[in-house]
Amino acid sequence: AVEAAVRSLATDAAGHRALEGVVRISATDGFSAYIAAPAAAAAGAVQRRHPGVAVEIVAATRRATQQRSGLDIEVVVGEPKVLRAK
Which residues contact 72 (CB under 8 A, 6 or more apart)? Predict the structure, then answer.
């Protein structure tokens, strides 16, 4: 499903829209080492097709907060204490 969504956004160099930008992921040390980093390495095929896409991984153990910005994906420790989380 995710790949299909990405394919619907991505197009070729013939003037169609291309993916570009930085995907910032913040996760705990363990998640970063065993899940995020290997997944980012395996995503090499995506980066070969879309050289304008880069992945940054920030390894940090933090609690959830609504005030943090600048991240696209965040994996935190504990139950979120935010207004809209259920």
Answer: 23, 24, 25
| Residue 3 located in a structural domain | no
Q: Which domain holds residue 81?
A: 20-86
The overall pTM is greater than 0.85: no
Decide if 14 is inside a domain: no
- How many separate domains does the chain show? 1
Instruction: Place 48 in a pLDDT band, splitting at 50, 70 and 90.
Output: confident
Number of C-alpha atoms within 13 angstroms, CB side, residue 36? 20
Please name the residues in contact with 86: beta carbons below 8 A apart, sequence gap of 6 or more.
none
Asked whether residue 62 is assigned to any structural domain, the reply reads: yes
Contacts of 22 (CB under 8 A, 6+ apart): 53, 54, 55, 56
